[in-house]
């Protein structure tokens, strides 16, 4: 499945709107979960973490006044998981409004104060509006020392023109600066050029029409810009990869392989290096099959020593209401194991439980 088709695949959604949704009881459940108090079924979920001190163990100086008292438990993380991972993003926004109306507190800020670590990072990510979340990820990738080029490449190469425009709008509203200008300030050379080109969203022509003559010419131009000469004409690669439609590029890749006797990926590997190579290869991968690209991102986020939690969280959260089910199918075909099994091996605790809830059942 090429990238421009993935946005209309309803069967790909793992997190859907809850039927019979009412934000008020959800907000109350979250409030109780973070106050350690509850009634009915909520109290039962706390009982393992609540204990009673017998009066015989208390002195008259005890702050409990010489009577047995129930000490409220801490945060009920499972209740938070049950609510927030089983509601759509639009429903979470309604829950946040209800939470503030009922309890006079900002839900996201309250979650931040009650949770910690990777679990906090995941739950807070769920509370962002999608475009604001991606704007935040881009901003975080560029702030401070060093730049996380991989994050910028991933987002810019895999989103449609309309989505990029919404991300740019959210970025400017939230951070008071232009995303394009910040990318230009934070990167340089051909990497800067390809990122700025990708930001324009010029690959978005979804028509199935392909001019065979132009596709052949583009393939010949790519061959002439790389394999045929000493050195590489990087701008020719950038221009064709970033301004041609996905359907057109697929034909170009076919023609290129006939001319060069090697794939476009092999040529990019031999002709470029570093972040520019990663950016070009990402465009090719997203053009060929967006679901396979994200399956690969998730796999390598967990493969080997350590976990790239930022990549894992971002891609599960951002794809859960788009095409995560389809990504799961490709993951299993490509790596011979399910995404959920790898999450179970590589993560733990509430963080693991929340990720598995978002991912859903195995294909």
From TrEMBL:
SUPFAM superfamilies: Annexin
Protein source organism: Macaca nemestrina (Pig-tailed macaque)
One Gene Ontology term from the biological process aspect of the record: endosome organization
Domain notes per entry: A pair of annexin repeats may form one binding site for calcium and phospholipid.
Annotated Gene Ontology cellular component terms: cytoplasm; nucleus; plasma membrane; vesicle membrane
UniProt keyword Transmembrane helix present: no
Gene Ontology MF terms: calcium ion binding; calcium-dependent phospholipid binding; phosphatidylserine binding
Family: Belongs to the annexin family.
Binding site for Ca(2+): 302, 304, 306, 346
Name of this protein: Annexin
Alphabetical keyword list: Annexin, Calcium, Calcium/phospholipid-binding, Metal-binding, Phosphoprotein, Repeat
Domain of life the protein comes from: Eukaryota
Keyword Flavoprotein belongs to the record: no
């Amino acid at each position: 499945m090429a990238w421009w088709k993935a946005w209309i695949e309803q069967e790909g959604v793992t997190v859907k709107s809850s039927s019979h949704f009412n934000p008020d009881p959800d907000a109350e459940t979250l409030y109780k979960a973070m106050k350690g108090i509850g009634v009915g079924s909520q109290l039962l979920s706390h009982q393992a973490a609540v204990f009673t001190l017998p009066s015989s163990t208390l002195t008259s100086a005890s702050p409990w006044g010489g009577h047995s008292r129930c000490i409220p438990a801490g945060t009920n993380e499972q209740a938070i998981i049950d609510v927030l991972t089983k509601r759509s993003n639009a429903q979470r926004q309604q829950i946040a409004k209800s939470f503030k109306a009922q309890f006079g507190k900002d839900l996201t800020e309250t979650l931040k104060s009650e949770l910690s670590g990777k679990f906090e990072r995941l739950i807070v990510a769920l509370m962002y509006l999608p475009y604001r979340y991606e704007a935040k990820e881009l901003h975080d990738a560029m702030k401070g020392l060093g730049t996380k080029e991989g994050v910028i490449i991933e987002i810019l190469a895999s989103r449609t023109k309309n989505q990029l425009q919404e991300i740019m709008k959210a970025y400017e509203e939230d951070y008071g600066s232009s995303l394009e200008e910040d990318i230009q300030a934070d990167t340089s050379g051909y990497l800067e050029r390809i990122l700025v080109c990708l930001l324009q969203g010029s690959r978005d022509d979804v028509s199935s029409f392909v001019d065979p003559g132009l596709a052949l010419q583009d393939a010949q131009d790519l061959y002439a810009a790389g394999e045929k000469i000493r050195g590489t004409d990087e701008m020719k690669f950038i221009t064709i990869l970033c301004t041609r439609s996905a359907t057109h590029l697929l034909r170009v890749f076919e023609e290129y392989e006939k001319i060069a006797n090697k794939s476009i990926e092999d040529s990019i590997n031999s002709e470029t290096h570093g972040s520019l190579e990663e950016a070009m290869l990402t465009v090719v991968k997203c053009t060929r099959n967006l679901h396979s690209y994200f399956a690969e991102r998730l796999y390598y986020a967990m493969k080997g020593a350590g976990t790239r939690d930022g990549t894992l969280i971002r891609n599960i959260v951002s794809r859960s209401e788009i095409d995560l089910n389809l990504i799961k199918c490709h993951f299993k075909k490509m790596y011979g194991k399910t995404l959920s099994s790898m999450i179970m091996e590589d993560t733990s605790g509430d963080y693991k439980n929340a990720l598995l809830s978002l991912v859903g059942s195995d294909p």
